[in-house]
Write a structure and sequence with these properties.
269 residues; alpha/beta; binds L-Erythrulose; binds manganese (II) ion
């Protein structure tokens, strides 16, 4: 198992990103606490100093696990279900730029919040079809670049599409999405899955990444989530990729990072 931590540029106590500030400083901090990798979250991928990130990773022997696109939804309000052609083209082109950077830094790309929401009273099938064809476009591009795209199941209060493991698998299989894998997040699973283990078994061979936060979205071990069940299920599936801390930086980023690493050590030695 490898340990990663989600990082953003701007400090925001309501956003589940542990380290904030310059990404190169976050790589150094994450290494110091004992992580193997960081997740980069930014709404403006073109502003990322890719060469410095690559150099810092090399120097610190660190990796970029994945690049999150969710901030595009927060900052620009664009989603993969937008029906207007110009908005649709804009977000697809943006995601392709994330894939270009991911190819350079050898990471994956996450698609979570930018799935968007089907508006009230709208025809759900039309929106789901738009999401499927957007993901197909993205996936075809990711294949050319040799990048894995992670499709995340998020809870119903954030997105009204792809809320659980079964939704991920249906989407991948219905649209024959190559290079797309599932991202399961303990916080969302706790709300959406009837059974944590069955949620993991359903995604099974498609599982590509796991987000870790307790039921309160604070650092793992601080709440009531049943970690034994999750980790047993991951073991049975042969999952050995990243467990990535994506939790609120409360009471502080330092405390959160320290407690998270202690938590991992208590389970994985
Ligand atoms: C993104 O990974 C996620 O889990 C969303 O809930 C972000 O708020
Ligand atoms: Mn997540």
């Amino acid at each position: 198992m490898m340990f990663s931590v989600a990082c953003g540029e701007v400090k925001n106590p309501s956003s589940p990103l542990v380290f904030s500030g310059n990404f190169c400083s976050s790589i150094v901090k994450a290494k110091k606490y004992g992580f193997d990798a960081i997740e980069i979250h930014t709404p403006d991928i073109e502003n990322l100093d890719v060469e410095s990130v690559i150099a810092t990773c090399k120097c610190e022997n660190m990796k970029i696990s994945t690049i999150g696109t969710g901030a595009i939804y927060g900052k620009y309000g664009l989603s993969l279900m937008d029906q207007e052609k110009d908005k649709h083209d804009r977000i697809i082109n943006m995601v392709k730029k994330y894939i270009d950077v991911a190819e350079r830094v050898k990471s994956k790309v996450t698609i979570g919040s930018i799935k968007g929401n089907v508006p009230k009273n709208a025809c759900r099938d039309i929106y789901i079809e738009t999401l499927g064809s957007s993901l197909k476009d993205i996936s075809d591009y990711a294949v050319q670049k040799g990048v894995i795209v992670l499709l995340e199941a998020t809870n119903r209060y954030e997105n009204n599409v792809i809320n659980n493991g079964s939704d991920i698998v249906s989407m991948i299989e219905k649209y024959s999405l190559k290079n797309v894998m599932g991202l399961m997040d303990s916080f969302h699973m706790n709300i959406e899955e009837e059974s944590i283990s069955n949620g993991i078994f359903t995604v099974g061979k498609y599982l590509g990444h796991v987000h870790i936060a307790d039921n309160t979205r604070l650092y793992p071990g601080s709440g009531s989530f049943n970690w034994n069940i999750l980790f047993e299920a991951l073991k049975k599936c042969g999952y050995n990729s990243y467990l990535s801390i994506e939790c609120l930086p409360i009471p502080s980023e330092e405390e959160c990072a320290k407690k998270s690493i202690e938590f991992f050590q208590s389970f994985f030695g």
